[in-house]
Specification:
The structure is a homodimer of 459-residue chains. The mean pLDDT of chain A is 96. With 459 residues, chain A is an alpha+beta fold. Chain A has 16 helices and 19 strands. Chain A is 38% helix and 20% strand. The first copy, chain A, has three domains: 88 residues, Uridine Diphospho-n-acetylenolpyruvylglucosamine Reductase, domain 2, CATH 3.30.43; 117 residues, Uridine Diphospho-n-acetylenolpyruvylglucosamine Reductase, domain 3, CATH 3.30.465.10; 190 residues, FAD-linked oxidases, C-terminal domain (Vanillyl-alcohol Oxidase, Chain A, domain 3, 3-Layer(aba) Sandwich), CATH 3.40.462. The interface between A and B is large, with 88 and 88 residues. Bound molecules: flavin-adenine dinucleotide (2 copies).
Chain lengths: 459, 459
């Protein structure tokens, strides 16, 4: 009998139909986003309570079975990919908002709550949760990848918005981290250690996250530029001069073409910034004026903005659909998203190099991203049956990472290491720092059972 | 020959006069702030380069000698207290600003740079570093205690303002953490693990920290209230309604009395908020109007504000001197500062309980603090020869911690655990979470040589 079969004996009785072993059921949990080959989990568990998670983890450890935590599988670097002989733990059913405390600008959620469901729940409070990856991801997944999105330039990433967690450790122990206070100097910062750990240290079963007031005025719109460089220079100067923009997204002409076709927009195929400003009516007007002054020197067209929330929703829906829009450019295509983030002063150079490298390789790839953070994505649009294209994409990706690291940037701004960036992690931090991460991993997960094969290269 | 004597043989030759063994020299490094008994280090090392730190750490590990990192010793919980048989490592001589990169809103410093020296160095750039504990502490010490100060309500604490570190591990290995990018999802968040670790995991030899633009307009002043509750309610509503105040400090009547006497102010002895607003001229006016509307319902007097930077400097100098001012209330007194931080909605109740408990115990103790963060301090003013007073202070402190923990707060908002809060850490996070912290400690510092006796209770 295999380890997994032994675990099944214990857990099937406990979870019933929520211990899924038949192929049709398991096939729904392949975490198939992104360019990594998606594996079929050998078994999928669907716990509903903290106690069930604790029991599962203790039993898995007892049986020596590996565990892969799973939100809704939208991560892009194979972060939640199935592992042979392991149990994938689908947390999407633990999706209750446990508490909203508007008076403390926070809420407490189970890990399977999605960002859209949370904001729906918050609607009546005048508060919102700002982190918005393009997919409707779970909070547990977003915490685990240290996700961000279009609002991070003003509101920070998951790193800045998680106050505390409850985590089940590999042996089934439940621990709290952090507190409900805005700051604390009490001991090691376990909250930030688990945030971004991609399910390799423990399973997050509860999170306390910060909320923000819905701004009095929201002004949003698009801004066309003569050239890519002018658009990026405008972003750089905006950040440098401290204009508190809420969103500042770049779409290059190829990205605009993709979005026009996919979302029915009619934007000119030129480098374009999608901008949003938050504040009082007076302050958003002030910010707009500051932006226009900056753009004027950089070949900006008219900054067309609107206060209409419905128009704004359409705009951001189109932006969020950029990845599927890219994929739709070619029949049966796969997209491969890079995730470079550089210090803001290096952004123009980074994006110019990216465009040149993509074109030199003859690849189809919109470039876009959360440029206010210095974070941009190249979406390679590839056919599965084009090995030469894949090899070229791989080479361009490595080249862009090398440039980013040479200027103090990072190989991943928000997608995490997963399977795809394991070698890059070593290049970025060096062998000694990664060895230290491994020592921490071994101290918390001595059996190496939490999401194996992610973050660290097999030896 | 003792371990320390063996280490001395190696290091004295290397560091010369910077390996201090004579008593008069060592006596200058007793880290005697706060209420903890200050010990005399057995030896003090003063490395000047990263290589010297690496050599020292490797040699100390080889000799089995413990190491106590030391900034300027202003921490308040005995965090940097000397340890028998250990070497205290004075880092105040590693005090170069290595790089200022205004275009990326960051700078790179050695650990011994003080906050005032850094801001002096930044003067010409239009940027500043906002974190300002009352003492002129070092960046290395501030990172290690996860310090904050009056500006944290708007600019965050050290947690939000450190982008990356270079750390020498107990075996002498040098590792980098973080990057110069604003965000990264690359591997475990070692930056935040070392931030707040109080010298128990490694020695920070370099830090990359965020800078902020000096605001166009700064409006600051004092605001008197009829009662403590009205002042605190005003703070609570201000935070809840998202007014982006830069500083919002409370001084109760006893604190005002102390500051009047010490700093030559003439403020009425009533609960008073010290407030500062940052933004455009228009926006600070807007913020002020919002504040006045909030205060009106809570017994506020006139909000007296000024744009004059010199007047503002006097104001904040007086606020920063609150601790010595309290000490000066009684001849030969010692102050003991508590450091509770609660969710903002619980602040009024927390402070009311603190005042009642202090008065019931018949103690002299100003109450003040960074109330915009939910963080307040009780400064017990005690004579060394008053054991009954000390015992009462201890009891009140425990009582206030218990209340804070019962509402999801923390026993320390910014001073750290040091020696004084080790039992409270266990009450706050529970034995299992603290056991996990110990496992991390053992993984990084297997010999237990980094700042022993801090954060964790001896077993
Ligand atoms: C169209 C599209 C657009 C995107 N845009 C963005 C973007 O703008 N910004 C961005 O940051 N990302 C973006 N992503 C990537 C993705 O949405 C994020 O990585 C997201 O955080 C994944 O959440 P998930 O719920 O799908 O998690 P999963 O993919 O299921 O899991 C992600 C990781 O978290 C771990 N995990 C999940 N839940 C838990 C838990 N409870 N405890 C412990 N570990 C757990 C998994 O093991 C895995 O390592 C996009 C993806 C798509 C498809
Ligand atoms: C009058 C007064 C007012 C204060 N007000 C505030 C306040 O408003 N906010 C606040 O947060 N604090 C405040 N403090 C406390 C104190 O200033 C902070 O704790 C500060 O962070 C200590 O810095 P330091 O350089 O003195 O460090 P030290 O006291 O020398 O050391 C502090 C800790 O950091 C470790 N350490 C120091 N340098 C390094 C390094 N390079 N690598 C690794 N570990 C290191 C030490 O081992 C120790 O554990 C105040 C103190 C005083 C006396």
């Amino acid at each position: 009998m295999t380890d997994l079969a032994r675990l099944s004996e214990t857990m099937a009785g406990r979870l019933g139909a929520r211990w899924i072993t038949h192929e049709a059921g398991r096939a729904q949990f392949m975490a198939a986003e992104g360019h990594h080959a998606a594996g079929l989990p050998d078994v999928v568990a669907q716990p509903r309570t903290v106690e069930e998670v604790q029991m599962l983890m203790a039993a898995a450890q007892g049986a020596g079975v590996a565990v892969v935590p799973l939100g809704v599988g939208t991560s892009l670097e194979g972060n939640a990919g199935a592992v042979a002989g392991a149990v994938s733990v689908d947390l999407s059913g633990m999706n209750r908002v446990l508490e909203v405390a508007p008076e403390d600008l926070l809420c407490v959620v189970e890990p399977g709550v999605t960002r859209e469901a949370l904001n729906e729940e918050l609607r009546a409070t005048g508060l919102f949760f700002p982190i918005d990856p393009g997919a409707n991801a779970t909070l547990g997944g977003m915490i685990s990848t240290r996700a961000s999105g279009t609002n991070a330039v003003r509101y920070g990433t998951m790193r800045e918005n998680v106050l505390g967690l409850k985590v089940v450790l590999p042996d089934g122990t439940l621990i709290p981290t952090g507190s409900r206070a805005r700051k604390s100097a009490a001991g090691y910062d376990l909250t930030h250690l688990f945030t971004g750990s991609e399910g390799t240290l423990g399973l997050i079963v509860e999170a306390t996250v910060r909320l923000h007031g819905i701004p009095e005025a929201v002004l949003a719109g698009t801004w066309r530029f003569d050239g890519l460089d002018g658009a990026v220079q405008t972003v750089i100067e905006t950040i440098q001069s401290g204009v508190p923009v809420a969103r500042m997204e770049l779409l290059d002409p190829v990205a605009i073409r993709a979005c026009n076709a996919f979302a029915g927009l009619t934007l000119a195929e030129q480098p374009t910034l999608f901008v949003e400003l938050h504040g009082s009516p007076q302050s958003v007007r002030e910010q707009r004026t500051q932006l226009e002054a900056i753009g004027a020197g950089h070949g900006a067209g008219v900054l067309t903005m609107s206060l209409d929330r419905d128009e704004q929703r359409l705009l951001w829906r189109a932006r969020h659909a950029a990845l599927p829009a890219a994929r739709a450019m070619v029949a049966d295509a796969v997209t491969w998203s890079t995730d470079i983030c550089v210090p803001i002063s290096k952004l123009a150079e980074a994006i110019a190099r990216a465009r040149a490298a993509v074109d030199a390789a003859g690849l189809l790839a919109p470039i876009l991203g959360h440029v206010g953070d210095g974070n941009y994505h190249v979406f390679f649009v590839l056919r599965r049956d084009d090995p030469v294209g894949w090899e070229k994409a791989r080479a361009v990706n490595e080249q862009l990472i090398d440039y980013a690291l040479s200027v103090g940037g990072t190989c991943t701004g928000e997608h995490g290491i997963g399977m795809g960036k394991r070698a890059a992690l070593v290049r970025e931090h060096g062998a000694e720092a990664v060895a230290l991460m491994r020592r921490i991993k071994a101290a918390i997960d001595p059996g190496g059972l939490m999401n194996p094969g992610k973050i660290f290269l097999e030896r």
